[in-house]
Amino acid sequence: MNLVLDSVCKRYGNGRDAQLVLDQISFTMHTGQFLALLGSSGSGKSTLMRMVAGLEKPTSGSLRLDGQPIRGPGSDRGMVFQKYSLYPWLTAAQNVAFGLEIKGLDRSQIRERTAFYLEVVGLADAARRLPRELSGGMQQRVAIARALAAEPRLLMLDEPFGALDLQIRESMQEFLHNLWRSTGLSVLLITHDIDEALLLAQQVHVLAPRPGRIVESLSLDLDKSDLRDLRISASFQTLRHQVADTLRQLDRDPP
């Protein structure tokens, strides 16, 4: 998997009313990498994610996946949103299987994949439960299992834990980190949460708001064997304060 964004710009509207939302976004992401886009409201994070998903087109510049232009949605990219967007009348297993049925896989393949990915996210025992019978964190794990079941080359996460309370959010961050380490997934995360970006990602691009643009790129070499210890370490706190200062400065004095 090789994702390349080259001088991507996005404008809405025409003429005097045109609004520049993203300005000259360029980066490359490789197989197995965990990359985060970090920025406050107005930095164009979600717009950028929708373009990678093929739901929107850039005004200028290009997006390529494995050398091919991204022209629309595809099963090579799996998407998980902040809202779980599960079908409330379907069980956890049926939600995971739904996309596989649309793809036309045979029943045995669907059963095997559904069972496997529910096991991967630790919900094998919840296969027959409806979303209303699951906690918020469990529902989000079902959404992740559904995305993984399509076996995408790139897993995209749009503020996936933003609707969860602090304790569950931290638990889900550890879950995602362990899932990435054990599977070798390629993960693109967008978030406004500094801790989340620094804890999970290998590479973090910091976005300025209005218009969104990359103002700082961080390659992280942190010991992530225990995220709980890392959260309270002096080195992590120092880095966190530095990034927070950058974001505060951008909000006060946008580039």
Average pLDDT figure: 93
Number of helices: 8
Placed side by side, the strands forming the largest sheet appear as 6-7-8-3-9-10
* CATH architectural arrangement of the largest domain: 3-Layer(aba) Sandwich
CATH topology of the largest domain: Rossmann fold
The CATH top-level class label of the largest domain? Alpha Beta
Largest sheet: 6 strands, mixed
Report the order of strands and helices.
Answer: EEEHEEEHHHEHEHEEHH
What ranges have pLDDT less than 50 throughout 5 or more consecutive residues?
none
Q: What is the domain tally?
A: 2
Oligomerization status of the protein chains: single chain
Quantity of strands, as a count: 10
Can you tell me the overall shape? Answer: globular
Structural class: alpha/beta
State the helicity in percent bands: 25-40%
CATH superfamily of the largest domain, please? P-loop containing nucleotide triphosphate hydrolases
From the N-terminal CA to the C-terminal CA, the straight-line distance is 32 Å
What gyration radius follows from the Cα positions, in whole Å? Answer: 19 Å
Topology overview:
Elements lengths: L1 E11 L6 E12 L3 E6 L5 H8 L7 E6 L2 E2 L7 E4 L11 H12 L3 H14 L15 H14 L4 E5 L7 H18 L3 E5 L2 H7 L2 E6 L4 E7 L7 H5 L2 H19 L3
Parallel strand pairs: 3-8, 3-9, 6-7, 7-8
Antiparallel strand pairs: 1-2, 1-4, 4-5, 9-10
Q: What key attributes describe this structure?
A:
255 residues; alpha/beta; Rossmann fold; 2 domains; 6-stranded mixed beta sheet; 4-stranded antiparallel beta sheet; 8 helices; 25% strand
